[in-house]
Amino acid sequence: xxxxxxxxxxxxxxxxxxxxxxxxxxxxxxxxxxxxxxxxxxxxxxxxxxxxxxxxxxxxxxxxxxxxxxxxxxxxxxxxxxxxxxxxxxxxxxxxxxxxxxxxxxxxxxxxxxxxxxxxxxxxxxxxxxxxxxxxxxxxxxxxxxxxxxxxxxxxxxxxxxxxxxxxxxxxxxxxxxxxxxxxxxxxxxxxxxxxxxxxxxxxxxxxxxxxxxxxxxxxxxxxxxxxxxxxxxxxxxxxxxxxxxxxxxxxxxxxxx
Length: 258
Prior knowledge:
By secondary structure, the protein is of the alpha+beta class. Among the domains are: about 80-95 and about 180-255, Orthogonal Bundle (Topoisomerase I, Chain A, domain 4), CATH 1.10.132.20; about 105-175, Gyrase A, domain 2, CATH 3.30.1360. It contains six helices and six strands; from the N terminus they run H-H-H-E-E-E-E-H-E-E-H-H. It has helices at about 1-35, 40-65, 75-100, 150-160, 180-215, 225-255; strands at about 115-120, 120-125, 130-135, 140-145, 165-170, 170-175. The protein has a four-stranded antiparallel sheet, covered by helices on one side. Helix 3 runs antiparallel to helix 5 (about 180-215) and helix 3 (about 75-100) runs parallel beside helix 6 (about 225-255). The longest helix has about 35 residues, at about 225-255. One of its GO terms (cellular component) is mitochondrion. One of its GO terms (biological process) is translation. It is found in: Cytoplasm.
């Protein structure tokens, strides 16, 4: 009996040892068959940075609905205002030139600037071939650069609508300014008013050009900025219109006082 028991334990132990050996071999084989995909530290860093960059890309894409980069637009305000101011200044200069052509009761060297003199086959403004100076409040002196042009200058002054009758004094001309009649004053004032209105219209054309340029920017620029720019152009227009009106009022006063 004891012998049989001993044999039974021996067989059982042998079976246990065999099964454990087989189990260990299978486990070892499974482990050995598993792919060895252990990443090195640099590779792990690359993966982390890639995932982080991908996450940032998705976040920025989500924040920008169009998925495009915002374009920084140039500030057009200074350019628009500078162009408008240049146009308006030119209008003021033209108005001042027209007013200077009108005769008043007082002598002014600029009142002869518009007279064109034909000499040596050329037509030139009087102020380019002679020096005009004021002798007193009622008398002008005209000194030509070329004494041979004296007769031509005299003819041009007489034929002008100023109503002057210069006299020769050696190598110069002396032009006395006659007093203005009431009818003449009224006629000149009408011309002043017409010139003033032309100046205002020219200034407003500069304003309209600026406004048209601003209107084209509404599709791409903030509306608040453009509204502010429109107000600045309006203020600029009022400033130049007042300047034109002040010039005309001063001219009317000069005519009436003469």
